[in-house]
Design brief:
Layout: H1 2-11, H2 15-27, E1 32-36, E2 41-44, H3 46-52, H4 67-70, H5 75-84, E3 90-100, E4 104-115, E5 124-131, H6 133-155, E6 159-164, E7 170-173, H7 175-181, H8 185-188, H9 205-215, E8 217-226, E9 232-242, E10 245-252, H10 254-269, H11 273-283, E11 287-292, E12 297-300, H12 302-308, H13 316-321, H14 331-338, E13 342-350, E14 353-365, E15 371-380, H15 382-428, H16 434-459, E16 467-471, H17 472-486, E17 491-496, E18 503-507, H18 508-525, E19 530-541, H19 543-549, E20 555-564, H20 571-576, H21 594-604, E21 608-613, E22 619-626, E23 650-654, H22 658-668, E24 674-678, H23 681-691, E25 695-701, H24 709-719, E26 724-729, H25 738-743, E27 747-750, H26 755-767
Parallel strand pairs: 17-19, 23-24, 23-25, 25-26, 26-27
Antiparallel strand pairs: 1-2, 1-5, 3-4, 4-5, 6-7, 6-10, 8-9, 9-10, 11-12, 11-15, 13-14, 14-15, 16-18, 19-20, 20-22, 21-22
């Protein structure tokens, strides 16, 4: 009955319109459903029956959700018909996915039209169904294929570039080709293979593509490719067709090529047993020989021949030592006597000089155990001995540095006492007193001694690096006297300084060390005397200068030129002078560290050093340091800049030097401070515990008997975390570094200090 009503509704159309509608329904390829406003099927297209494998009896007149035993009761279809379409007359490309019992899973695009009929008549709904299941499968398959290719492309160990097929220009490259050839993406996109060092002839790229299309793959073997840095890489290149683009795989076969070369060389040298044995013995790296019991050399490997010459058939003592009898202490003779292994060191004179060789001798026995010959291994240990000597020298210098630092520490304590009491005496003298000028000379001498101590710490490498504005001209003038002492009297020192100051950001001590090392090298190159000239000037590097010289960055530089008239150097020596432990001096003459340290220091300062030298023509070092703009700071403030104020606080002084402890007490007490003294670390802790309620500041020497300053401060801070502590030392490589002090909230004053400096520092901490 329901189906009859639906048919009746469909027949209510005029005959002509109904015929047209039927024609449309039966000719469209996509399934089409006509629904009434109650969502019952009025009619469907022939393709609907075919696609969904149903018949008219179970379709027309049925509620759409009841079709196929309620298979069409699909939530997304309900959403379209009941929620979306009532608010719109049309809705296209509405995607629905459903798994049907008879035909399986289908992905469908629905296009819905709500058609109003004549006034007062009920609406109808046209629902067309496009089955896109296969299209979606193909799209997913294509996406998966593209993803697989992308992963293979990005992770391949071969370098891969994709080329457009017109002129062979690069469209894309993977990370492997960038790593192999050294070019980044922006450098090769749009370029041809020849532009990135791949020397394939591709002037007629169309012909190559035609050949590729015909054969499917083109390959080129053992192609020598040049990387961006100029390195030569052997490759195998494969080109395949990828429809829109051509794919070019570049495989690095340099290791294989080298292995082939090594194999070919090995085969050439190993045709006979003797050649193979020679290859094995030579690969040891040591000289190898066999001598009979009469000390006649039966065999030498290539290493020994290169080292001592070919002496097969000669007596070893004649060949190596030019003697007519067996050498005293001969290891082969000892091996013959006792059958053991013996090792000795000898000096061997060869054409290139004298070598130190280590000789290990052992007996060679036959099957019955009789000694029939001797084996001798000869190892060149010259470089090893030099390194041992340099290490000993370096350790000696380190010990000297440590000793110098310790002496400087104690000397600073003495200077603190001299300067402190000197300042106190100066304050008691009237302005016109003749003694005032004498005392001023005492204080000036103490300042010079303090400066000398500071330089001693710098050269022992115990001074903390402090980068600040430095006038190179002023630094050289201050260093002049020390330079004169270092070089010989037979060497003239000339300073040619620029008229204007040259301010750089640097550690003055390290710059002095660089210049001192250069002066020492110049001195050693002028054994018969000569001239050492140090000049300064302003140099501006532009792009052209950097390109021509091969170093530097554009900008203004302070230029320091150190020139001597000494022996000079050849090209081979010039290439190695900045290598650590390289030296042309004999054993004990130098560590080979001076110039390498100078190079390292200048590198840390963003500077450069270049050497110009020829044998017999002297040597010129040119140092470039970036020019700064700040003016160099002074080491101290004028005495009358900061007023000195006293106080009534209690201060604990821990200082093991009796004179300095007494001086500090005499400085503080006249200005109202209460002073408690301790002569070592344990006494400092004891007196702090006794007076912890009234002590406001603790002045600690870093190095003290029993407990050092750091250990004392740790105990005090556990009792009172807020206690103010001032460390003092004349030796900056103490247990605590000054940067660590600042980080931990401590203050520091360096010995020797002026009385007013101490008073100002104390008041500053107490008021802080």
């Amino acid at each position: 009955m329901v189906r009859e009503r639906a048919v009746t509704k469909f027949q209510e159309f005029p005959d002509e319109a109904m015929g047209l509608a039927e024609s449309i329904l039966n000719t469209v390829r996509e399934p089409l459903i006509v629904l009434d406003q109650d969502l019952r099927v009025v009619t469907v297209s022939r393709s609907f029956y075919e696609v969904f494998q149903v018949n008219p009896l179970e379709t027309v007149g049925q509620h759409i959700y009841d079709l196929g035993n309620k298979q069409w009761d699909i939530p997304k279809l309900r959403e379209l018909l009941e929620t979306i379409l009532p608010g719109k007359t049309t809705f296209d490309d509405y995607e629905v996915e459903h798994d049907f019992v008879g035909i399986g899973k289908r992905v469908m695009l629905l296009n819905a039209r709500q058609i109003e009929r004549a006034s007062g008549e009920k609406r109808i709904i046209l629902l067309s169904i496009e089955d896109i299941t296969e299209r979606r499968r193909l799209q997913d398959s294509l996406a998966a294929s593209e993803e697989r290719f992308r992963r293979l492309f990005e992770t391949a160990t071969d370098g891969i570039v994709l080329l457009e097929k017109d002129e062979g220009r690069i469209v894309q490259g993977n990370q492997a080709v960038e790593k192999m050839l050294g070019y980044v993406e922006k450098e090769y996109i749009g370029k041809k293979l020849s532009d990135i060092g791949v020397p394939l002839e591709m002037s007629d790229f169309g012909a190559i593509m035609a050949s590729l299309n015909k054969r499917g793959i083109l390959n080129y073997e053992d192609v020598s490719v040049k990387t961006k840095s100029g390195e030569e890489v052997y490759t195998d290149i494969y080109m395949v067709d990828r429809a829109e683009l051509a794919q070019c795989n570049i495989r690095n076969v340099s290791e294989r090529k080298q292995a082939e070369k090594r194999m070919q060389a090995a085969l050439r040298n190993a045709h006979e047993d003797k050649s193979r044995l020679e290859a094995i013995l030579s690969s040891m790296g040591d000289g190898f020989s066999i001598q009979d019991t009469d000390f006649i050399i039966l065999y030498q490997n290539k290493v020994l021949k290169d080292l001592r010459g070919d002496h097969v058939g000669e007596h070893c003592y004649t060949a190596y030592e030019n003697k007519d009898h067996v050498c005293e202490g001969c290891p082969i003779a000892m091996a013959y006597r006792d059958g053991g292994i013996h090792k000795v060191e000898r000096f061997a004179a060869i054409s290139k000089g004298t070598l130190c060789v280590e000789i290990t001798a052992s007996p060679l026995r036959d099957l019955q155990g009789n000694i029939v010959a001797g084996i001798e291994l000869v190892r060149d240990v010259t470089d090893h001995k030099k390194l041992e000597a340099q290490l000993r020298h370096s350790q000696k210098m380190e010990a000297v540095g440590t000793l110098a630092g310790g002496i400087a520490h104690d000397f600073n304590n003495i200077l603190s006492v001299i300067k402190g009491y000197g300042a106190m005496v100066m304050d008691t003298l009237e302005a016109g007193s003749p003694s005032r000028e004498d005392m001023n000379e005492v204080l000036t001498a103490a300042d010079r001694a303090a400066d000398l101590t500071r330089r001693l710490l710098l050269f022992s490498r115990n001074e903390i690096v402090q980068v600040k504005p430095v006038d190179i001209n002023a630094l050289l003038l201050g260093l002049q006297k020390m330079l004169v002492r270092v070089i010989r009297e037979s060497i003239d020192l000339n300073l040619d300084l620029s008229e204007k100051p040259l301010i750089v950001q640097a550690d003055a001590g390290q710059m002095e060390q660089v210049l001192m090392n250069l002066a020492v090298n110049a001195r050693d190159a002028m054994l018969q005397g000569g001239r050492l000239t140090i000049s300064t000037g302003l140099e501006e590097m532009d792009d052209a200068f950097v390109a021509a010289c091969g170093y530097g960055a554009p900008g203004k530089y302070a230029l320091i030129t150190v020139a001597d008239t000494g022996l000079g150097m050849d090209a081979k020596t010039r290439k190695r002078i900045f290598d650590p432990y390289f030296t042309t001096k004999g054993v004990g003459g130098g560590t080979g560290l001076g110039l390498s340290m100078a190079y390292s220091i200048l590198k840390q300062h963003n500077g450069y050093i270049k050497v110009y030298s020829e044998p017999g023509q002297g040597t010129v070092f040119r140092i470039y340091l970036p020019l700064g703009e700040e003016t160099p700071s002074t080491d101290g403030k004028p005495e009358d800049v900061v007023p000195v104020k006293g106080g009534n606080e209690t201060i604990l002084i821990a200082e093991d030097d009796d004179s300095l402890r007494k001086l500090i007490k005499n400085i503080l007490e006249p200005l109202g401070y209460h002073v408690i003294c301790a002569m070592d670390g344990e006494e400092a802790i004891s007196k702090f515990m006794e007076n912890k309620e009234r002590i406001s500041l603790v002045l600690l020497d870093m190095i003290m008997p029993k407990k050092n300053g750091k250990e004392v401060s740790e105990v005090i801070r556990k009792v009172n975390p807020e206690m103010k502590i001032l460390f003092s030392s004349g030796y900056s490589k103490d247990i605590i570094k000054t940067d660590a002090l600042a980080a931990a909230g401590f203050d520091f004053i360096h010995k020797p200090f002026r009385s007013k400096d101490l008073l100002i520092k104390v008041r500053e901490i107490l008021d802080g």
